[in-house]
Amino acid sequence: MTQNSRKRFGLLGRNISYSFSKGHFTTKFEKEKYQGYTYENFDIQEISGFPEIIKNTADLSGLNVTIPYKEEVIPFLDKLSKKATKIGAVNTIKITKKGKLKGYNTDYFGFLKSLEPLLQPHHKKALILGTGGASKGVAFALKELGIEYLFVSRKASEKAIDYSQINADTFSEYQIIINSTPIGTSPNIEACPDIPYELFTDKHIAYDLIYNPAETQFLKNAKAKGAQIKNGLDMLIFQAEKAWEIWNK
């Protein structure tokens, strides 16, 4: 179906030239003949630049949001979906015909859809490495799947343990390990979260939200010990299609 009206979409983030979203949607618009539809990167160093984008970009219909603005963008929005409110992070914004901004979270949906096929009955608990905006969608999805989770942060708190507290007992209890930090993203592909990789087994799932490189050092280390591994590409595809649905409803 050919669409001829002009509509603009984009990705809000910092240092996002590597972005998946621009390529995904540009290809989609060409393939599905959405003439006049474009997708661009809005790369800003501070969230304070966000109102300028809204003010100066004509025909803007929707945005994806990536690190580090999934939480920081919330005060600039007029409304949040129920799930985005519960999660406390936004990765999709719909701009209404009246110019109102409504925030959604499709990360949780993408993560849930991509993790679900890997789950076996013994996968009852998960460790989430990182406590940023991306980790919140992950936690919400795990809750929906009935999987208990524990956050790991650089500093221990009421809500998280720190990396030094992870030991053999932790690995025995938590058999899904999820990297929701940016550690290991291209170009720093030799970096990985500081955890005892020798404790992975073939009972574990190692899931990395990063998709570039396709196999991060975190995933390589886990795979070497027999763990089932998964990167973030399918999650991104699922969440992008959900965002597209939201922009068009």
Automatic annotation (TrEMBL):
Signal peptide: none annotated. The keyword Secreted does not apply. Residues 11-93 form the Shikimate dehydrogenase substrate binding N-terminal domain. Pathway: Metabolic intermediate biosynthesis; chorismate biosynthesis; chorismate from D-erythrose 4-phosphate and phosphoenolpyruvate: step 4/7. The keyword Protease does not apply. Gene3D superfamilies: Leucine Dehydrogenase, chain A, domain 1, NAD(P)-binding Rossmann-like Domain. Keywords: Amino-acid biosynthesis, Aromatic amino acid biosynthesis, Oxidoreductase. It comes from the Bacteria. SUPFAM superfamilies: Aminoacid dehydrogenase-like, N-terminal domain, NAD(P)-binding Rossmann-fold domains. Pfam families: Shikimate_dh_N (PF08501). This is Shikimate 5-dehydrogenase. It comes from Flavobacterium palustre. The lineage of its organism: Bacteria, Pseudomonadati, Bacteroidota, Flavobacteriia, Flavobacteriales.
